[in-house]
């Protein structure tokens, strides 16, 4: 039965070919630059998609939470890095997790490393997260005092192994000068590496943001690349220039439940609980919660006429429709919606349907 | 063990006393006005909370999707109404659901009622949804032609039973004149009732929005009230004047992972995948993704000093903290966050923890 006939309700469709091409392209780029690609798996959150990634030489992944790390555990990953400032209330979960799985965590202050030094029963690696100007989280680049204090405390526990420095320059998402941010980030990691390499000859530096990793071609002495969103991409990444619309690997199939010819609107079953509520702004100032593509038995195509989701509530989505779409659509049809933020959409949906009718796992669907 | 000691990771805490008080207050108000309260269960999405509601005379609920209706099925509800324009791709699911459960659906056009007339094998009720100016979905108040056509088609199937008119004046959420919207909505339902009552003597009218049902005291000849959010309330409802902050019945407990004294910010594990990304705007123009409350063993208290979640990403939340909070907080503590939109937060979390340490079910947590 064609995959479209399996869809009665909002369903996240994945195009395996596009997904594999995205992974392959980034893996080849990392190879070309002599870097190790360790993708952030908060986007895909899937064993099956992990198996695809392994075919392109991926051996380690990153998780956004201990919950996701627990899900990914035991799937043959050499190491799972939890790229979130470690939460000391989860130390006993971490000890259990690290019994049978290579794990590393992220440190941004001394009190957390002290708690780990006191309570870890298993060997765990750690990265120190560096803030080079994003302002969300991390030790400031020049705060050698905190870095030294963290390293000093870590030496009191044989369970703690310093791996290196991690930097997520998330401000590349805000439309400022990406090139400059990328250079500053690289430079920050370079200084840290040269400062600490004599004491820690095996330390590595990791830089992880999709806009930077997708577009830049100069990575200096950075050792590892850690982008996440590139596996699927989305409309936000298109706007940032990281990819083309044709590279977006997932779309939400939504049933048409009503059509308003006068207002040129199509009501679909697909709302905030499916897409999440991330939003872009169109050139005319209107909001865009997702863009319409035309589903067919081979996947989807991007129409020359533009239609988009203009508003969203818990379950409802209202599509502002082109004349061409209005002329073609009827109640009971399916439309495809390219997501604004694919990580959030996948997290909401908790499962994928492939074009060859396979259900593909996602951590959130497996309670 | 006190409930706080059970919390290691982001957890949605529910205060049963406040929840019951919210349900009781609305049930008493409906009784006082001689109306039937049929709450929209898209907010709570829970069997256990449904059992609480039954103690206040609630016998029917509303679902936002067939998926939620399936979850709520078989729990003793006399009827479950699916208050979303019916999706014709789900007719076979509807037939299965209606085998053992009183079900009604919502109709906004003729093609959908035709498909139901053709394919229903079980008895199903239907409401015609009316749009009295919100502009999201529904038949326009004055569009008697469409209403007549829907009713005419429905008569061709003995499986279809017309129940009445449903109106959700969601524009009360947008800060315009609530009183006027409420009066227009009531008037629209009154006209429809008087027009169709001679042909359908048992028809009922239902009005469902929390701001209107919470604040207004005049419901005219409306038969049923269908608010949803009032079960928990949230910061948006506080802003709309529907409730006090003290009436909010759920809060997200989030672990503190870092503190930045210089920026007066607290980094917590609690992001868009937990709270959703609904947002309010503070008086100074800054964004507010949730407000900090102080957790204690009896629940939480609202501090006199204001701290709020100023930004949010997939897993991260950054709290802009008052001096008092900064002076008291340490890494590893838990903070409570009152949600901006409790329906979305509950949907993200898929489970509640009560103050007496019970896990309480939510449809999204039970795959």
From TrEMBL, chains A, B:
EC number(s) reported in the record: 5.1.1.1
InterPro entries: Ala_racemase_N, D-amino_acid_metab_enzyme, D-ser_dehydrat-like_dom, D-ser_dehydrat-like_sf, PLP-binding_barrel
Source species of the chain: Algoriphagus aquatilis
Entry protein name: Alanine racemase
Keywords: Isomerase, Lyase
Domain D-serine dehydratase-like: 249-353
Pfam annotation, one family: D-ser_dehydrat
One MF term in the entry's GO annotations: alanine racemase activity
SUPFAM superfamilies reported for this sequence: PLP-binding barrel (SSF51419)
Residues of the Alanine racemase N-terminal domain: 20-232
Annotated family: Belongs to the DSD1 family.
Enzyme class at the top of the EC tree: isomerase
